[in-house]
Amino acid sequence: PKGNMAFAGKYEFEGDENYDEFVKKIGLPSEKIEMGRNCKIVTEVVQNGNDFTWTQHFPGGRTTTNTFTVGKEADMETFGGKKFKATVKMEDGKLVADFPNYRHTAEISGGKLVEVSAQISRIVYKKPKTSTA
């Protein structure tokens, strides 16, 4: 049913698109970029209703775990190790979270876990110079 998708399971990395462009935009240091490229990450999701434990197992034994409840603010950690607070929402069967400088969505599609990270646009306006004439 929509809005209550079963995410639970273990997923192995299959491929990524626009990885370099994305990690540069979010300011990941180059050694982390190399570490993450085609990284055989295994993502393990434990779901109990709206409660999630989302663990990423990196080669070499490092793991990142985020525990959250849909609709409630939680302490999260980025791929690069930055800590922040976010509220994960469910929109059209996708989990959506606003990370510090990008929006992250996750959905189950064709039995696969598909995660999309998109940079949030940032628009800057400046005051026009006042004419002295």
TrEMBL record:
Keywords: Cytoplasm, Lipid-binding, Transport. It is found in: Cytoplasm. One of its GO terms (molecular function) is lipid binding. PROSITE patterns: FABP (PS00214). Residues 9-26 form the Cytosolic fatty-acid binding proteins domain. InterPro entries: Calycin, Fatty_acid-bd, ILBP. GO terms for cellular component: cytoplasm. Belongs to the calycin superfamily. Fatty-acid binding protein (FABP) family. This is FABP6 protein. It comes from Pachyramphus minor. The gene is Fabp6.
